[in-house]
Amino acid sequence: MSLWKSVLAAAVLALASGSSALAARTDLVLGMVLEPPHLDPTAGAAAAIREITYANVFQGLTHIGPNGEVLPDLAESWTISDDGKVYTFKLHTGVKFHDGTDFSADDVKFSLERAMAPDSQNAQKQLFAAIDKVEVVDPATVKVTLKHPQGSFLYDMGWGDAVIVSPKTAATNKEKPIGTGPFKFENWAKGSSVTLVKSDNYWGDPVSLDKAEFRFIPDAAAAVPAMLSGDVQAFPTFPPDAVSQIESDPQLKVVVGSTEGETILAMNNKKPPFDNLKVRQAVSYALDRKAIIDGASGGFGQPIGSHMSPSNKAYVDLTGKYPYDPAKAKELLKEAGLEKGFKTTLKLPPPSYARLGGEIIASELRDIGIDAEIIPVEWAQWLDQVFTKKDYDMTIVSHVEPNDIAIYSRPDYYFNYQNPEFNKVIEELNLTSDEAKRIDLLKQAQEILADDAVVGFLFELPKIGVWDAKLTGLWENSPIPANDLTQVKWND
Amino acid sequence: MTLQTQVPERRLTDAIGKALANRSFAIGLFIALLVAGTALLSFVWTPYDVTKLVIADKQQAPSWLHWFGTDHFGRDILSMIMVGSRNSLAVALVAVGIGMGLGVPLGCLAAARGGLLDEALMRLNDLVFAFPALLSAIMITAIFGPGAINAIIAIGIFNVPVFARVARAGALSIWPREFILAARAAGKGGTAITVEHILPNIATLLMVQGTIQFALGILAEAGLSYLGLGAQPPMPSWGRMLFDAQTKMAIAPWMAIFPGLAIVVTVLGLNLLGDGIADLIDPKARRQR
Amino acid sequence: MTAYLLKRLVIAAITLVLASMVVFAVLQVVPGDPARLMLGMNASAEQVEMLRSQLGLNDPLVLRYLHWAIGLLHLDFGRSYTYSVPVLDLVRERIVVSLPLALIALALSTAIAIPVGLYSASRRGRAGDVIAMGVSQVGVAVPNFWFALLLIYLFAVWLRWVPAGGFAGWKAGAWPALKSLLLPAVALALPQAAILARVTRQALLEVLSEDYIRTARAKGMPYRAVLWRHALRNALIPVLTIMGLQFAFLLAGTVIIENVFYLPGLGRLVFQAITQRDLIVVESVVMLLVAAVIAVNLLVDLSYALVDPRLRSRE
């Protein structure tokens, strides 16, 4: 009897909390595709670490805002010397770590020196490379001296890798992160979720959420019902090919932002027949970008004609260089002496843009006589076979690092592409600081890559966020990997 | 008991009539022939070309043009199911072939020789049985790479001990029979006796097990394909159709429903056929009806 | 009895050792370097090499096998490459999902199958039997992941009765945790119940056709009473065998269902570990599952002896 009662009570409770709670909700379940390997942003490159901890658990001297702007954080203000080499940060007082210890300038000195150290595990050591010394002036003031001026220093200090940690807990942050942020770590159910709760001793503006759960849902197939059923209320990077299902639900909002991910059909430039420019051009002419974007990315994403994000100032639209033209592609193959076509392989890593895009591209290549066998690979195999050993003919991948056009000048990169002319442009670019001239050089670089048809340029990967329409305060773009929950709240 | 002695005297047409009167057998045979016929038909004709993607026609609901609707690439689902049946049947059939080809000789050998060899072979059997089949199949396809051939091997390996056990148990029950003793007395060797007397007597038993493993093979192939470890595009496979469908369930449920039904109907047909054969050959079970 | 027990134990131990060699050998040929995967695209060859030697990947094969196998005996499963925590901790976290799931599914399947089997056997050949067996034939033929998809859209998305996936964790209380295991358990149980119901019916019918049952009936014992008093007990052996096999299947074979519902169970742990080349996790968990299968089979063998005294005396 008592069991029956408690079951009934639980059911009633479940109903009450599900439908008619009068007070605004204060909990949030947020879906993420990847689970982090650990939770210390100062000791690992995985974006998932920052997507949980940034601004929520850990804070830096500065803070990157939703549109990429630099905002004060633990440093309430700063002054920069005239030669641009000395930064004096005025720190907030009364700040406590989640374990109760006081935050002071010593922690800043410790954190920066730890990141700079030769044996540092920091994944972005270059951020700290310019630092000469860090001095504690008084508990609320810290002075950082640089070896040479670094225009981006304040931005750099806002990265997830530059957050301030306590010397007491630095060694254990991987499993139990302790920071100064508005949320403290509660639990990590491996393979399932990380839970954060509101910190009682937070120094800054109070946040409206009491509890936030980051739930790991690797498959698009599971992400859809999770959102539709309301189990998960926000999914800031939703798989694009599954968005069409969400759009039909009026209670959910779909927000399309941009990323820095150039999605390309890479070709092994040294391996016949792809060492022949005409063959690479033929492949480029065979690509129907619209069909690829519709079929592999749910219609989201801008077509590109070279290796540059359309949101970049230096972007030139080169999509017209190789429009979709199968007849022209066949002609080029004929000129290359391959009028009967040829057999080749297409290795596809796990993301849906690659697997779905690969099916479409294989079909498009079939139309011009190229028989590309699809070989799906795990990331482990992709890194090993394609990226490291360069044992591949074609592959599809998105290069998500910003401003990474210089990868085409790397001598041993997996494209196997070598063009001294292009390398010269990149060398000059590295030596140039004049903005207008840099843009000019970047444009030249894009032109060369397009002319050489180094790879098949497909589209810019979209960033699609999906969340409950009553939820506000989530970031629409992602200038850095983060799920900043400080401004998030439920509106009724 | 009377039934058993009468069977050989019946004429062929009579036997067929008898077989078709068995409900399971008749329905099972009908479905099996339907699926096999569809697979064969797909070699010469399908309503649409399944290698041609028409993105503009994606996810269309069932209509007179597309009876089962279209998928996320605008391909006709009916045509995909037709061509996909080839893959399911081929994988399961070859996997059964591997299981029989290796398992039956091993089982017969164990029964014929007995002793240490028998013990060793059966322990080897236990070893394979101790591995979770699906998980191991996943491991095998992960190692050798996904694809129809590797799926066949992965499924086939786990068929071997099944057939070895059935063959051994069957053979052991035949060996003590009088006609075997007579054959031995006539100086026939173990191999000759196995080929001439044992195999014909356990053939029906193996056939029943064969249809069961065939059905299980189709389910296993669907599972592997669903995880992306089976046949690769552009070759359609039922399991991968379900994988592709699952992100579209809310707006294009037909993408999931029809391939799923194809699997259910095929496996159902094979199981019924197996039951029917078992019924027909086992007079004891027959008498119980 | 003791000799029988001893023989079974020795065989089980030998099987375990052989299985560990197979698992270890197979994983040596998996393509993909775990060290490279852990360090990512931008790591240098030296860094990869250093991590390889740190992980002990450069030691001789036999040494590595012995190191691993001896560790297993001490319940020291090594450290996961990807999570860098002891594998045992991961297993502990996952088994509290997989084990209850398997048990619930088994209980559900038994609760459905035995009554249906009894009912069918008692009304052999009549409409009820034909319908029940027809439904069970369909049940056997349904791929459980497809069934799971249909369940999710019906009960989670449309009716919103249960979560669409994920595991609430036992910390959240028994009811939310059980609620998140409900759909996966049903998806797993129904096809298993279909098989079990058929086996139960068949076993009952076979027992019923034996001479002593006929005698009991001839003496005027009612059919139902015969069914309950004699047949069920004697039909238990095949039923138990199938249940043992099903439990082993449920514990290890839930990979696909755990993927559909993104449950953090053992099956998904292994599946993820395979794709991430976390070989130490794969080796250890597969061995654990193999050991579980062997143990369950051993238990089933022993329970025969308990159920059937004739078997006991024969050995």
Question: Can you put this structure into words, describing what you see?
Answer:
The complex is a heterotrimer of chains A (492), B (289) and C (315). Chain A is 28% helix and 23% strand. Chain A has 492 residues and is of the alpha+beta class. Residues 1-21 of chain A have low confidence and may be disordered. Chain B has 289 residues and is mainly α. Chain B has helices at residues 2-6, 12-21, 23-44, 77-113, 115-130, 133-144, 148-174, 178-185, 190-226, 238-246, 254-281, 283-288. In chain B, helix 4 runs parallel beside helix 11 (254-281) and helix 9 packs parallel to helix 10. With 315 residues, chain C is mainly α. Chain C has one domain (91-313): MetI-like (MetI-like fold, Orthogonal Bundle), CATH 1.10.3720. The chains are: A alpha+beta (492), B mainly alpha (289), C mainly alpha (315). Chains in contact: A-B, A-C, B-C.
Please write out the topology.
The complex is a heterotrimer of chains A (492), B (289) and C (315).
Chain A: H1 2-19, E1 27-32, H2 47-53, E2 62-64, E3 70-72, E4 75-80, E5 86-91, H3 105-116, E6 131-138, E7 141-146, H4 153-156, E8 183-189, E9 193-198, E10 211-216, H5 220-228, E11 234-235, H6 243-247, E12 252-267, H7 277-286, H8 289-296, E13 302-303, H9 326-335, E14 342-348, H10 352-367, E15 370-376, H11 379-388, E16 394-399, H12 420-431, H13 435-452, E17 456-468, E18 471-472, E19 489-490
Parallel strand pairs in A: 1-10, 14-15, 14-16
Antiparallel strand pairs in A: 2-3, 4-5, 5-7, 6-7, 8-9, 9-10, 11-17, 12-16, 12-17, 13-17, 18-19
Chain B: H1 2-6, H2 12-21, H3 23-44, H4 77-113, H5 115-130, H6 133-144, H7 148-174, H8 178-185, H9 190-226, H10 238-246, H11 254-281, H12 283-288
Helix pairs in contact in B: 3-4, 3-11, 4-5, 4-7, 4-9, 4-11, 5-7, 6-7, 7-9, 9-10, 9-11, 10-11
Chain C: H1 2-28, H2 34-39, H3 45-54, H4 61-73, H5 87-122, H6 127-141, H7 144-158, H8 174-208, H9 211-218, H10 223-252, H11 255-260, H12 266-275, H13 279-307, H14 309-314
